[in-house]
Amino acid sequence: MPRPGKNSYSDQKPPYSYISLTAMAIQSSQEKMLPLSDIYKFIMDRFPYYRENTQRWQNSLRHNLSFNDCFIKIPRRPDQPGKGSFWALHPDCGDMFENGSFLRRRKRFKLMRSEHVACKNSPMLHYFHHQHHQTKLAIGTPETPGSVGRLPQFQTYSINGGQSGGFKHPFAIENIIGRDYKGMMTGGLPIASVMHHLGYPVPTQLSSVVNSMWPHVGMLSDSMSPVPVSSDYGPFGVPMKSLYHPSGQTMPAVPVPIKPTPGLGQVPALPGLTHSHAQICASSPSALLEKTLPELAEGKGAALHPALLLS
DNA sequence: GCTTGTTTATCTTATG
DNA sequence: CATAAGATAAACAAGC
């Protein structure tokens, strides 16, 4: 009955929102940023469903890019031919899908007006974008086995040339600036953004989770597997951790439940990188990795109850 | 003229 | 059931 060739998966809309699809695409790229056309391509390559009605969904997707603050536009440098800008994930968007659902986020990521302006008009974007090139070379590709197990891009440099005391754990800065941060700027540009432009694997969870969590993202082969859902998620039986950080010491396997409540409003608007991030760090990334995956494997927006996994 | 972006409006749907 | 997030439509500007 269920013949995976025709009417089975292809017809069904993948259990991902445009936001997650886009995030997926972006994260799958080496530079963590993609021009619109490539985002389209990515989605179409992996989800047969989106090979039709392109006009419709692409319009929606574009709307999402503009409308959602979690996506930032990075202008092309003059030496980089092509249409449109690059799109990246706002470093602060953090674990947008912390609840395990890629259909709907717990809360929409919205910047404040001030941040908006600064972020969008920052002339520094070009600069950082430029820097990015050289940097990434030194760092190696995310796939480079030689590097670190989990989040390779992190090792070699840090935002200010690495003088900041050495290597920053993936959960340091990004998480730090993540979620709670709402006003940390560096010359009009969110510090987090800067990092991002420099090649940091932005939204922690996403970047790390994505690769192992979204099959299609990882395998960029031409033989795009049918669809995300169910059966094709074989590899998910495996505990996330072991999948990408064999060393086993990357993630602080903190058994954090689900985020309590986004009500932490006591964040000191410090202009530096220092912050009260304890809570932040503890609140989700690892939790997501540890518990969410299995559910995601289920594909459907159905199995989205972290609680189930906990029991 | 097409692609890329932005914005507004409305409808749908997941969640609390 | 109310609300907020997401989807879809559509108008329109800018750039190539």
Query: How many β strands by DSSP?
Result: 5
Total of helices? 13
Distance between the termini: 34 Å
Order of helical and strand elements? HEHHEEHHHEEHHHHHHH
Strand line-up across the major sheet: 1-3-2
Major β-sheet profile: 3 strands, antiparallel
**Derived structural class:** mainly alpha
Residues in β-strands, percent: under 5%
Q: Give average pLDDT, whole number.
A: 55
Question: Mind telling me the C-alpha Rg?
Answer: 19 Å
- What is the global morphology? globular
* Amount of helix: 25-40%
Low-confidence stretches: 130-209, 218-311
Which terms summarize this structure?
311 residues, mainly alpha, three-stranded antiparallel β-sheet, two-stranded antiparallel ribbon, 13 helices, 5 strands, 37% helix, disordered C terminus, DNA-binding
Note down, in words, how this protein is organized:
The chain is mainly α. It has 13 helices and five strands. It has helices spanning 18-28, 36-46, 54-67, 113-121, 124-139, 173-177, 191-197, 204-213, 215-218, 240-244, 278-283, 285-297, 306-310; strands at residues 33-35, 71-74, 86-89, 185-186, 189-190. Strand 4 and strand 5 (189-190) form a beta hairpin. Mean pLDDT is 55; it is low at 130-209 and 218-311. The protein binds a DNA duplex (16 and 16 nucleotides) through helix 3.
Could you give a quick summary of the protein structure above?
This protein is mainly alpha-helical and 311 residues long.
Secondary structure: elements and pairs:
Elements: H1 18-28, E1 33-35, H2 36-46, H3 54-67, E2 71-74, E3 86-89, H4 113-121, H5 124-139, H6 173-177, E4 185-186, E5 189-190, H7 191-197, H8 204-213, H9 215-218, H10 240-244, H11 278-283, H12 285-297, H13 306-310
Antiparallel strand pairs: 1-3, 2-3, 4-5
The protein binds a DNA duplex (16 and 16 nucleotides) through residues 17-19, 35-37, 56-57, 59-60, 62-67, 73, 83-85, 101, 103-108, 301.
